[in-house]
Write a structure and sequence with these properties.
Mean pLDDT is 93; it is low at 1-18. Helix 4 packs antiparallel against helix 5 and helix 7 runs antiparallel to helix 8 (184-196). It is built from 13 helices and 17 strands. Helices cover 34% and strands 24% of the residues. Strand 1 (29-33), helix 2 and strand 2 form a beta-alpha-beta unit. The strands form 3 sheets. Strands 9, 10, 11, 12, 13, 14, 15, 16 and 17 form a 9-stranded antiparallel sheet that branches. The chain has a 4-stranded parallel sheet with strand order 3-2-1-4, sandwiched between helices. By secondary structure, it is α+β, with helices and mostly antiparallel strands.
């Protein structure tokens, strides 16, 4: 990133290139702070609504900048850039939660429509703040503690019998910023290093996981709330690799509880736009299922990508409607079940081009909906996802869903490696 003065000069220079032609006359303007795949897919949804989005992007070739006509280069951590990019916007929203809240509070004081607001966002920015707030609201969270010293960690380790998960309070995603120390010495050494490096941390009790669920709602500033079906998410090395919609392997009681928790949290915290609540399904001492809240995301979420092809209104369109305080759309299923499989960069990038790989997938699975993010290959990087749905009228029983999962994973893996994991050949 260039110096503040250079960045601001470049920021202003970009305005004349696109402002007069980037937006339909009379259409609301939504500024998205962030330039990743979530902003990219919001832009796709905006086009269908007769809108387009302005994007504050760090790089001209970023995922969202590739598909947006109104791109402003800048840094969301620079106050001047944030203040400048939002002018004449009807709403300001985000594809991440990391914009400094003091900037957002200043925008609100100026009368800018910021959604979600920083009073809600703080609960997605700081994991310890979130845990405390949810506990105060009576929501189920694992035992936790803010860690200020090695002695704090030592006490927490003893109190949990060594079942400890250590988390950086801010930042971290896709397995980054989360640690599971194998023994007491590792936990204490990790804590010492993190605190020495100025990383605020917390610890929580590691649970015996049955499965992970994701509950999602959208909420408008005027209070309308609509939920999507609860989904099961599958994690590998801390990264979501698959989402199964609906969560057919969980009990109706647990699914309803997840629904209610998500809606209650949206109202309690004043969340606007899309809220995703990541949940741990565990068994209590009597072998009965119960839920603990893992994380909150106040934006479209990876576990909601299935909505693009599996229900009436996808999460990206719904988020834009919500932040503009417009009526929300139906979230009814359009297929008995849909599976989303992430495309994660492999250890090597095959010689066969990605578009040739896509063609191969479609020849085998004509129903596959492939969504690519315009990102360069990097190991374990999310570069796209595949959605596959059961045909209308079919039964979403256990065997059918397992087969759908298998096909979605095969398609995603082929896009990564250019090789069919099951040895399939078109001949």
């Amino acid at each position: 990133m260039s110096t503040d003065a250079e960045s601001k000069e470049y920021l202003h220079a970009d305005w004349s290139l696109s402002r007069d032609t980037a937006h339909a006359p009379g259409a609301p303007i939504i500024t998205i702070v962030g330039d990743g795949q979530l902003a990219r897919m919001m832009q796709h949804a905006a086009v269908e609504l007769g809108l387009s989005c302005r994007v504050l992007a760090a790089e001209a070739g970023s995922s969202a900048a590739q598909v947006s006509a109104d791109v402003v280069l800048g840094d969301y951590e620079q106050r001047e850039h944030v203040m400048d990019v939002v002018r004449d916007s009807d709403a300001v929203t985000f594809d991440h939660e990391h914009v400094p809240n003091e900037f957002l509070n200043e925008l609100i004081e100026r009368g800018v429509n910021v959604q979600p607001q920083p009073s809600a966002l703080i609960n997605a920015q700081d994991k310890l703040v979130m845990r405390k707030r949810l506990r105060e609201a009576g929501a189920p969270v694992p035992p936790f503690m803010g860690i200020e010293s090695v002695q704090d960690m030592e006490g927490f380790w003893e109190s949990t019998g060594g079942a400890v998960c250590v988390k950086a309070r801010r930042g971290g995603y896709d397995g980054k910023g989360v640690w599971f120390p194998a023994d007491r010495d590792e936990a204490l050494d990790l804590t010492s290093r993190l605190l020495h490096n100025g990383v605020p941390v917390m610890a929580e009790k590691k649970v015996d996981l049955v499965r992970e669920l994701s509950a999602m709602v959208a909420r408008t500033p005027s209070g309308e709330v609509i939920a999507w079906p609860v989904v099961e998410s599958v994690q590998e090395q801390g990264i979501c690799v698959e989402a199964i919609a609906p969560a057919v392997f969980s009990s109706e009681q647990i699914v309803e509880h997840a629904h209610q928790l998500c809606q209650d949290i949206a109202v309690e915290l004043g969340v606007t736009g899309v809220l995703a609540v990541e949940l741990f399904e565990v068994e209590d001492a009597n072998g009965q299922p119960e839920l603990f809240i893992n994380e909150l995301a106040m934006r479209p979420h990876n576990t909601g990508h299935w909505t693009q092809n599996g229900c009436v209104t996808d999460q990206f369109e719904q988020h834009l409607r919500a932040v503009l305080d417009r009526p929300l759309g139906s979230t009814a299923l359009t297929a008995p079940a849909t599976v989303m499989a992430n495309v994660l960069g492999g250890e090597e990038d095959p010689e066969k081009s990605m578009h040739e790989r896509m063609d191969d997938v479609w020849r085998r699975f004509p129903g596959a909906k492939i969504h690519m993010y315009g990102k360069q290959w990097r190991p374990r990087r999310k570069i796209g996802h595949v959605n596959l749905s059961l045909t209308c009228g079919s039964c979403a029983d256990e065997d059918a869903v397992k087969q759908l999962r298998r096909e979605a994973r095969l398609a995603a893996q082929y896009l990564v490696s250019a090789r069919w994991e099951d040895g399939w050949s078109p001949r």
